[in-house]
What does this fold into?
Amino acid sequence: MTLRLALLAAGCARRYGGNKLLAVHPASQQPLLHHVISEYRKAGITDIVVLTGYWHNAIIKTLPTGVTHHYVDDWQEGMAASVRAAVALDLTGYDGLMIGLGDQAGISATLINSLITDYASNPVITATNCQGIIGPPVIFPPQTLTVLDQLQGDSGAGKYLRKLALTAPDTIQTVYTDSLTDIDCPADWHKLD
It folds into this structure.
């Protein structure tokens, strides 16, 4: 099973008030983005592309060895621009595209492994279900990506995934987790305790 990971990290972090991706994660004492990358690597994901935007220069100076980056030209539009950039990545030779968030401080290799295991046994869209909210990280089979090209604005694929779960439940499966903290503002770090 070979997956390519696109980590969305293009926003300006307006609510955070600075570059949250380089803020220190309290558990690992690494920059948040490095912590997230480390969890994916522990789960065996080796082909990681960080999609950058506002903080491009700061992020690329600190990326761990072996992690590539891609600048999202229209990052100002919002998350949809990053998802479209992820979909445009070359997936030749890959079994799927995993999309994750660079600010998902609560991500764990255990959750990522569960997603990969489920996808390997049933290669349909495989998403995370956190207390009823379906979203990233999510694995997409290559043949399902065209619909993501239609996304617009400051929302990702969440609405599409929720609709699929209701209207075509055989095309999506989810892995449940009761906590998956992402960092939107400084106070969110306390949710990790």
